[in-house]
Amino acid sequence: MTPQKNKALGDARFSPPLARSGHRVVLTGASGQLGSYLLDHQKKDPSVSSEAWIRVRYHDLPANPGDYPKARTEWVGDPNQPITWVFCHGLTQPSAPREALEESNYWTLRRAVESSPRDPITGKILDRFLSVGTILENFEDVVAHQNYVRSKALWTQWLRETPPKGWDPTHWVHLQLHTLYSPRVIQSEHRMFFAQMIDAIQKDQPFLMSTGEQLREYHHASDVALGMLEVLKDPHWSNLPQRWYENGQVASHRHFTYSHGRPLSLADLAEHVMKSCGKLQLLKLGALGRAPYENFSRTFSRVRAPFLFDREVKAGLAEVATAILNPSLSSLKAPFYFEKK
């Protein structure tokens, strides 16, 4: 089944393909969950030229801003060629050293911005930037106590409060993401709640958790990547209207809380997946204490942008669990998509 676009604004109409905009795409994190799905969709889209895309490992991004002209020449042939940056890289391990988290999630992005070529007349930065963050950037107590979230928040805080000279906010789109899931994500992110639950089912062991009052929105990583490609296909990002922001508020920054507005409690999620796998007896709700610095009450409005793709959450989670636990029973050829009524 084909993913459904957000119906709130009708079908989106996009300008000519990205390759005609004069920009080349530099994608970091191409081997990660979002980056790999983005490449999958890009290769299948006849309107997007593969020749315009360059994959760069974030470890190969220059640590010295003065080395960027040479690197840009190697990537796109001309240090003054405008680039559309797609940042899909980053450290996500909360236990990683603070300095490493900030280098990966903040400084590598900042150096790319500061090294961008300027318009010779206006002095404006010519590159464009598509970045992804976390919805937890909106929770001050989490930012204050979790180094990973703080490292992501530093990037948006810098561009909102003290951007570099020549910064054009219409050249930036930042998607604040909720929790991602997919077979790729679950099999590589073993510390995730969903992944730990799948592990307990595989081992037929009790799954100990708190009372599960925490709220989570789950999005399939492939759906998010598909939405990112739709954003990239518009060569004039200034056309992304402010009505796409949450509640239609005009903002000087380009934030989108990538939300479908249908959160689940972890207890509800665990009960549904365990029951769908016939392992409800393994679930031990309330066996652990309540986790600090969590979201227990806040929900986010459904983003009003037509690049939102999503599927029915419980069915999607159960399908992914089945695909991992019993691959022969699920090919994931018919995901369950949610259509707004």
Order of helices and strands: EHEHEHEHHEEHHEEEHEEHEH
Strand order, biggest sheet?
A: 2-1-3-4-5-10
Mean pLDDT: 83
Major sheet details: 6 strands, parallel
At the first level of CATH, the class of the domain at 18-180 and 218-261 and 301-310 is Alpha Beta
Q: Would you tell me which CATH topology of the domain at 18-180 and 218-261 and 301-310 applies? A: Rossmann fold
Strand content: 5-15%
Report the helical percentage: 25-40%
Which word captures the global form?
Answer: globular
Query: CATH superfamily of the domain at 18-180 and 218-261 and 301-310, called what?
Result: NAD(P)-binding Rossmann-like Domain
Radius of gyration: 20 Å
Q: In CATH terms, what is the architecture of the domain at 18-180 and 218-261 and 301-310?
A: 3-Layer(aba) Sandwich
Structural write-up:
The protein is an alpha/beta fold and 341 residues long. It has a domain at 18-180 and 218-261 and 301-310: 3-Layer(aba) Sandwich (Rossmann fold), CATH 3.40.50.720. It contains ten helices and twelve strands. The chain has helices at residues 33-44, 68-76, 98-114, 140-145, 147-161, 183-188, 193-203, 221-232, 266-276, 313-325; strands at 24-28, 53-56, 83-87, 128-134, 172-177, 179-181, 207-208, 215-216, 218-220, 255-258, 264-265, 283-284. Strand 3, helix 3 and strand 4 form a beta-alpha-beta unit. Helix 1 (33-44) crosses helix 8 (221-232). The chain is globular and about 65 Å long.
